[in-house]
Design goal:
It holds the Pfam family PAN_3. InterPro entries: CTDL_fold, PAN-3_domain. With 285 residues, the protein is mainly β. Helix content is 12%, strand content 46%. The chain has two domains: 5-145; 158-281, Mannose-Binding Protein A, subunit A (Mannose-Binding Protein A, Chain A), CATH 3.10.100. The chain contains four helices and 19 strands. The strands form two sheets. Strands 1, 2, 3, 4, 5, 6, 7, 8, 9 and 10 form a ten-stranded antiparallel beta sheet that branches. β11 and β12 (156-163) form a beta hairpin. The protein starts with a strand and ends with a strand.
Length: 285
């Protein structure tokens, strides 16, 4: 008789409120952007994902090829949909998924699969919660390029700074309205700020540091100044997710927000800048 479900491997690693990390192991195939491929037997492949804190899933085939999948991809990768197609023991291919549930609960294959892992490219060392959504024959979620910031314990944004110079047609830059439309073409939103420290994540990515070193890099944020008088604007409407109230000194009437030299600045909204910080809501996928 063919089977679709093998076992659950437990790692007693507390996350919060009694949750522990478990590996759900099943027959199936996994498609997405893998972080690495190594030659390992099946049990070692599962253990490798269990031990690597950023790993969310692994797949193994009978030729001992083990593929490891992370939630956050490199800057040069695109966002990927990662999916599991469940099969039976006849296929011989095995998928192991990292999940975080209460110690007394055994996950069911009929449900969404929830997990939580830390990631190096985010703020405050928070764990990022993720959700494999159930499909007709498996599960799916999305991998993020190139960084994640968390605005609370359950609300995470996948963000990526884009340099227009990488597209020859945009080498002269875009104004604020054009930058908003540019992000929309990437299925993202021009990101505003919830707090100043959020700038540190995108500007510390190695690929962005290289752009800054070679060309400088002034990029648009989502947000426009209001309540401006006497050279100061006190309120900035950001990205639809948060409203950032701060003060910026500027003589520009109702300016737009940008990042220059790793700090936020006010710029004329019609000015052509070199890039944009785009994001999508990782929590909702």
């Amino acid at each position: 008789m063919s089977r679709s479900f093998i076992s659950i491997l437990f790692l007693y690693f507390p996350i919060s409120h009694g949750d522990i990390t478990k590996m759900m192991i099943m027959y199936g195939t996994l498609t997405g952007k893998s972080e690495e491929a190594v030659s390992l037997p099946e049990t070692n492949c599962t253990q490798l994902c269990l031990d690597e804190i950023e790993c969310i899933a692994a797949s193994w085939t009978t030729d001992n090829i083990c593929l490891i999948y992370n939630m956050v991809l490199s800057y040069n990768d695109s966002d990927h949909v990662i999916s599991i197609e469940q099969s039976t023991s006849d296929s011989k291919s095995i998928v192991a998924v990292k999940t975080s549930v209460s110690s007394d609960i055994c996950p069911l294959l009929e449900d969404n699969i929830y997990g939580s892992v830390p990631t190096k490219r985010m703020l405050n060392n928070r764990y990022v919660t993720y959700n494999w959504r159930k499909t007709s024959n498996g599960w799916m979620m999305k991998q993020c390029s190139a960084a994640i910031v968390s605005r609370n314990t359950t609300f995470h944004l996948c963000l990526k700074p884009y340099s227009f110079a990488q597209d020859g047609n945009l080498a002269n830059g875009l104004n604020h309205s054009e930058a908003m439309k540019f992000c929309e073409t990437k299925n993202k939103t021009l990101l505003g700020l919830d707090r100043m420290v959020e700038i540190t994540v995108p500007t510390n990515l190695p690929e962005v540091l290289e752009i800054i070193a070679n060309n400088g890099f002034v990029f648009w944020l989502g947000g426009r100044g209001s309540d401006c008088e006497n050279g100061e604007c006190k309120t900035f409407w950001t990205d639809g997710w948060s409203i950032w109230n701060s003060t910026v000194k500027t003589e520009i009437i109702n300016p737009c927000l940008a990042v220059a030299n790793r700090t936020f600045v006010a710029r004329e909204c019609n000015e052509k800048l070199e890039g944009a910080l785009c994001a999508w809501d990782f929590s909702e996928f």
